[in-house]
Amino acid sequence: MGMLIKNEFYKLKREWFMAFLLMLSLLPILTGGSGAVFNNSTKSLADLFFFMNNQFSMFFPMVIFILIGSLFYQEYKNKTYINWITYGFSKKKLFLSKVAVSTVISIGFAVILFVAFGLLVAILNGTGRLTGGVSLFLNLAIGFGIEACVIVLITTCLGAIVINLSRNIIVTSVVGVIYGFASCLFIGSEKGFVIPGSFAYRVSMSFLDKATYYDAPVPATIGGCISFVLCFEVMFLVGLLVFSHKKKIEN
């Protein structure tokens, strides 16, 4: 398994789309920062995080869709799919290698984004003049980390399903854009906890202001956790099934 993952990273050494995805990952800094400047909210760490995180919840799923889609699509595009599936490894390990690499890179992008957010805060306000201070920033990092992990795991599995069904990176990218916008529609709903992305967003924002969480926090938390686990397991198994089915067709 380790050799497969290492090989996947090696394939990405000369892929230009990684730089593009990194820039797309940082787009919430530009749009969120612009929103804060436009609303004259640059002096508040809380307001800056609010603007950035709203953009993150919309744009980052698009990044993940394109990333996982590209990892699988390169086998189809370069006509290396047949060689790849005859490595002698199980279907599950081949599928896991792509998913694992996409997950690691996506989390890395999220970390870079949050570091860039910290730099934006420092540039706009100076390190010693922040409303809320360092303790709030560290607290936000925990909430943001939870949100990023949920989005990465769910979206990676969903993207793997789409790319292996379509074998078309354009279709996968379009679905990613639609999914990114759609994932924001239920953020404000009290029943939105059944959608992992919406639930993760509310969890993240609760580290900023507990009043932004659900009116019935205990049922929402339990329901959100159950929904996340079930969605992740189902999407992973469906993704593996779709990939395995494609392999049988090729053979």
| Structural class by secondary-structure content | mainly alpha
Helix tally? 10
Please, what is the average pLDDT?
Answer: 85
Instruction: Give me the Rg, rounded.
Output: 19 Å
Helix content: over 70%
The count of β-strands is 0
Describe this structure in words.
With 251 residues, the chain is mostly helical. Helix content is 78%, strand content 0%. It has helices spanning 2-11, 17-25, 27-38, 45-77, 81-85, 91-125, 133-166, 169-182, 196-206, 217-250. Helix 1 crosses helix 6 (91-125), helix 2 packs antiparallel against helix 4 (45-77) and helix 7 (133-166) runs parallel beside helix 10 (217-250).
Question: Care to give the gist of this entry?
Answer:
This protein is 78% helix and 0% strand.
How are the secondary structure elements laid out?
Layout: H1 2-11, H2 17-25, H3 27-38, H4 45-77, H5 81-85, H6 91-125, H7 133-166, H8 169-182, H9 196-206, H10 217-250
Helix pairs in contact: 1-6, 2-4, 3-4, 4-6, 4-7, 4-8, 4-9, 6-7, 7-8, 7-9, 7-10
Keywords for this entry:
251 residues; mainly alpha; 10 helices
